[in-house]
Structure formats: structure tokens, C-alpha cells
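Example with several molecule types.
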Amino acid sequence: MRGAVAAAHRSAMESLGPTLRLMAGTFREVARRRSALWGAVMLTAILLTSLFFPLFYPVDPLAQDLLARFQPPAWLDGGSSAHLLGTDNLGRDALARILHGSRVSLLVGFSAVLLGELIGIVLGLVSGYYGRRLDSIIMRTADIFMAYPFMLLTISVIAVLGNSMFNLILVLGASDWVIYARTIRGSVLSLKEKEFVESARAVGTRHPAIIYRHILPNVISPLLVLGTLRVANIIIWESGLSFLGMGVPPPAPSWGRMLAEGRMYITDAWWLATFPGFAIMATILSINLLGDGLRDALDPRLRNISN
Amino acid sequence: MLHYLLKRLWHTVYVVMGISMISFFFIHLSGDPVMLMLPGDASMQEVEQLRQKLGFNDPLYVQYGRFIKKAVQGDFGESLYYHVPALDLILERLPASLELSLAAMVLALVVSIPIGIISAVYRGSALDMGSMLGALFGLSLPHFWLGIMFIMIFSVKLGWLPTSGRGTFAQLIMPALALAMSLMAMFARLTRSVMLEVLSLDYIRTARAKGLREFYVIGKHALKNALIPLVTVAGMQFGLLIGGTVIIETVFAWPGVGRLVVQAIFNRDYPLVQSIVFILALIFVAANLLVDLLYIYLDPRISYLEEK
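Resulting C-alpha cells for the full complex:
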């Protein structure tokens, strides 16, 4: 009996071992790829800026200055160093608004993906591990969610619930679980036939414990890649919703709304619609670079192809 | 083959059922239309009478049954704002959205497939690196921002193209290009990786060993198999595209379904919103079904494998 417990313990360690090894290996692989490294550096810079900008750019994004409306960026004629990227139709500082907007986009992007992954992981594990009725119910629901165009789903829910930061995260996260659930389910299906899972079952480990200790650590890494790439999509879509006026409610600055407002003044104030777009692009680009690097590092089959 | 078809059809049926339930649920959730129909000073009694008359007091499943019965007959309810059947409004706007989506899709495929093939064949070359970097940028641009930049440069600055509206070819160029950009990037990357995989297979070596010219090997033997995943993704993306025109239609004042849905949301015209979502979801399902059927033709292995 004791031997069996020890064996189960050993197998648990073995199942954790590869995960740790994989993580270390992933890190090395990512670091070896120059583009992925660039992505990581860019994203870190963006995250740090978003966290700490009040220390070096303490300008109120909501402060209006009607005497300083439509000031161009500092390096152009008529620009002033007080407003580096110029001001908008109400004389608000564009750079401060972009910086504050970064918090909205990043917060919504990462939280929504986290929520989606959480739902997806739980449903995917349950679906793959227990199989049968539960599996078919969850997977049929997933099919229906897949058929419902993501953008329209989020739009129609936001239309009903109303727009707030919380609702945005909730809606974007809850409609994004399918892709994670499917990925997890696939790996669980192949994993649950493996010896170490069987032996854990043989010594009487409870199902939830098997799932948590033996299965979960081995299926989590593809989700890292998927999640990273999804953050990019969610951020684009969040700015799209904001652009349509269905994002975080005003006056809180968000990139999408800055684009929508800037769009009205493209004839006289080109900078208003231009720079928030650059901010979105830089963020998405860094996430995509990192995500691509992670995928190459974690999936050796793809590695050969994409190099 | 028949088994596969039946399975696919069953899949479509329950997905449509599910979608109809979600749509019904949202209509129900979006509140009581009776309040919107009556004047603000209507008494509680009048409200109750109208509720009774319209059947809002029936159990949910009875209401759902009625919803389905009407939907099958093509009755998706009436727009609260325009006071005409929702379906009429949608059918009137749908061609514009289809035109835009189709233009974007064709543009994306025509540009991206050659780029993907060239990148795969000259893998590692400056050309390959350049196109893949370009593709990465293409994936990272929000298409509506691109649309605004287009307007700024080509309409406002240069005055080459009209800023908005639909009717002439010139008006189609910018929205279609903006919409196509991320698709182009996606397809170019996909074509490249699929081609790389296919080109390493034995039958390609055989074709080369036979002395076929490289042009034939790539253009005929390799491309044919590389097309299969492309068809899947393009089909799915086309379904998504019609819903995805929402923002670009707003940017370019394109009179399609996307713009209709945005206006309906701001008018609090929930029956119209839900009808649009339901119908677009149906189109999406139909597009997927079509792709699956196309599959049988493109890849005979599929129906064979399903049989086993």
C-alpha cells in the first residue's frame, strides 16, 4: 500500500517535472528568438508605462482648457511643450488621455482573457475528463457559441446590459471560453489514457485531485500561447466597441473613443485620430510578437515551419 | 458520405436551435417592449391589458414556441423605431454588407495567396522576411483606424477618393481595403505555413523526380492540397466578416446591416437588434455548412474517415 502511494507521488512529481522543465525550456526558446524578445521587451515597456506614468507625466486627462483647443503636437508650429501630443476639441491633453486609455485597454484585455480561460479550463477539463453526457452538452454549447459571431454577441449583450468596465470584461471574457475549452478538452482526452493518470486512479485518488494535480499541469502550456494571442484580439475589439460608443463610459479616456472623437476633426487636427491608433498598434504588435515566439517555443512542429 | 451529410445537417439544426434560444433570451432580457410602445402616462391597467394582449404574460416556453413559429414564417417582429417588419429592413441592407464583405474577401485572397506561396518557396529570403513582417503589422492594425487613416490621406489630403457612401467603385475601395488588411495578413501567413508543410511531403518529391517543372509542382500539386485549410479559414472568416463590417460601415457611412445594427442599438430598438444578430448568425452557420460541403469535394478523405 505504501509502495503504491509512493508510486502515485512519484508519478505526480513526474507529471510536474516536465511542466517545470518545459517552462524553463520555453523561457530559453523565447529568449533565443529575437522577434519574441522584442515583443517581450515592448510589452514590458508598455505595461510599466501604463502602471507608472503618473510619476513622470502627472497631467490630468480630463482637465479642459478651452483656450488651448486643438493645439498640435509639440514639434509642430504652434505646439507647446506643455502638451507633447497636442490637445483635443476641449483642450484636453492627448498624451495623458492615451496613457490613461492604456489602462482601460490592458485591464479589459487581460482580465477578459483570464475570465475566458478560467471558464474554458474548467469546462474543458470536465468535458474531456468525465466525457459522456457532460461532454456532449458542453461541446454542443460550444458549437452554438462558435456559430454566434463573436462581435455581434458582444454587441447585443452590451446593448442589453449597458456599458461599464465590469460588463465589458464579463461579456468579452464569457464569450471567449470556447477556444480554450476545445483546446483543453483535446489534450485531456489523450492525456487521461496515460499510465500516470491510470496509476493515480488505481491507488484511489479522487477524480478532482487527479484533474488538478496530474492533468491540469500538463495541459496548461498551449493556453499560455492562445491566451497571449487572444489578448491582442480582445484589445482590438474593446477599442472597436469603444469606438462605437459601447465601451467604457465617458469621460474615462479609452483608445477607441479617442479614435471616434478624433475622427470628427481629421481635417484640422490629424493627431487626434492618429496617435491612439499607434498606441493600439504598438500594444497589439508586441503581444503578437511575443505570442508567435511562445507558440514556436512550445510547439516544435510549428517551429520548423515558421523559421 | 451520406452519414457525413446527415451528421453535418443534424449539427446545423441544433446550432440553429441554440442560436434561436439565445436570441429569444436576449429579446426577453432586454426588457418589456410594452413600456416603449405606450405613451409615458399610460396607467398600470392599460399596460397590463397590452401585456395580456401581446402574450407577455404567458409562460416562457409558450412565448419561445410562438417566437419560433413566427421566425419559421419569416416574421422576426417589428422594428420599434421604423415600425416596419425587421426582416424587410435587414433584407434591404444585406446586399450592401455582402458586397463589401465579398470585395474584401476577394481582395484578401488575390493578394495574400501569391505572397504566401512566394514566401514559402523563397523561405528565409529578404522577400519572405519582409512579407511576414508586413503580415505581422497587418494583423496588429485595428481596421477601423486604418479606415480613418485612409480617409485622412486619400480623401482629405490628396482628394483622390470619396470619404463615404456607396454606389460607385471608388467608394468601395477604401472600406474594402481596410477590411481586407487583417485577412490578407492572416491568409498570407496561413498559405505560407501550409505550403511549407506540403512542400516537404513525399509526393512533391516524386513530382520533382519525375522532372516536372517547378512551376507545375508548386502551382498544381502543392497548391491543391494547401487550399484545403485555406478554404476552411476563408469560409469561417467570411461568416465573421459580415458581422465584422459593423465598425467599418460606421466609419465609411456604408449603408449595410452593420450600420443598421449600431443605429438600432442607439435607438433602443431591441427587436431589430436581435433579428439582425439572429439572421447574421444564420448566415454564418450557412457559410460553415457550405464550407463543409465544399470539403467533401476538395478532400475525399474526409467522408471516408467519417464513415469508419
